[in-house]
Amino acid sequence: MNSLLVSAAANTDTFTLDKYTVTPGVLGFLVIFAVGVALYLLMRSMTGKLKAVRGERTIEEPVDVAAAPTLIEDDAAKRKDS
Hints:
By secondary structure, the chain is mostly helical. The chain has three helices and no strands. 0% of the residues are buried.
């Protein structure tokens, strides 16, 4: 371990980094591409699950507030049947 540190210290005097030789390369591109694909798939899955939770319901006519508990029970019964 100590010899590694000594050799690294000795090499720093002779080695210089060039901004044109240090690049992420193909591996960096593949990692970022994989993260992008994973993010796309996760977002697509989350959107589908949110649509299922919300129920994608449209209201054509006004809902009577007094009848809301009955409507909720009817909707729950329909979901159990299907």
